[in-house]
């Protein structure tokens, strides 16, 4: 398991996930939600990075090329600096999509969408 590059984002946005539920119908015709697990899934974290150096920009792209949207990873402490939500033990992040990047002579920028996943059960 690797760690996301130790970069400080210029902006962060966390959307808390939900517990897994399923709707069932009772014999009297009523519909009820049944909680399937105590795990909260699909927390979404959006990170934006402005004014990245060429080295930082390459680190971010190389990390995505190694992990894609499949491999899970941990986040560095600087990345979560201003987020006050505690991450449960064993939960890891993965990319929801490829980073959106812009590179020109004056500035390198990137935005990343991540999803928090509970530990894998085998």
- What's the helix count? 1
Q: Report strand %.
A: 35-45%
What low-confidence regions span 5 or more consecutive residues with pLDDT below 50? Answer: none
Tell me the total number of β-strands.
7
Mean pLDDT: 87
Radius of gyration: 18 Å
Order of helices and strands: EEEEHEEE
End-to-end C-alpha gap: 17 Å
Q: Largest sheet at a glance?
A: 5 strands, antiparallel
Percent of residues in helical segments? 10-25%
Q: What is the number of independent domains?
A: 1
Structural class: mainly beta
Structure description:
With 122 residues, the protein is mainly beta. It has one domain. It is 11% helix and 40% strand. The chain has 1 helix and 7 strands. It has one helix at 54-67; strands at 11-15, 18-25, 31-41, 43-49, 92-95, 100-103, 108-117. Strands 1, 4, 5, 6 and 7 form a 5-stranded antiparallel β-sheet that branches. Strands 2-3 form a two-stranded antiparallel sheet. Strand 6 and strand 7 (108-117) form a beta hairpin. The radius of gyration is 18 Å and the shape is elongated.
């Amino acid at each position: 398991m690797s760690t996301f590059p130790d970069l400080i984002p210029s902006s962060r946005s966390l959307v808390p996930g939900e517990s897994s539920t399923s709707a069932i119908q009772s014999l009297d015709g009523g519909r009820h939600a049944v909680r399937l697990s105590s795990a909260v899934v699909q927390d979404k974290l959006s990170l934006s990075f402005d004014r990245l150096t060429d080295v930082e920009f390459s680190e971010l792209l190389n990390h995505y090329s190694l992990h894609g949207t499949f491999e899970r990873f941990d986040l560095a402490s600087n990345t979560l600096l201003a987020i006050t939500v505690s991450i449960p033990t064993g939960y890891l992040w993965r990319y929801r999509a490829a980073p959106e990047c812009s590179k020109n002579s004056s500035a390198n920028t990137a935005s990343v969408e991540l999803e928090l996943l509970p530990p894998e059960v085998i």
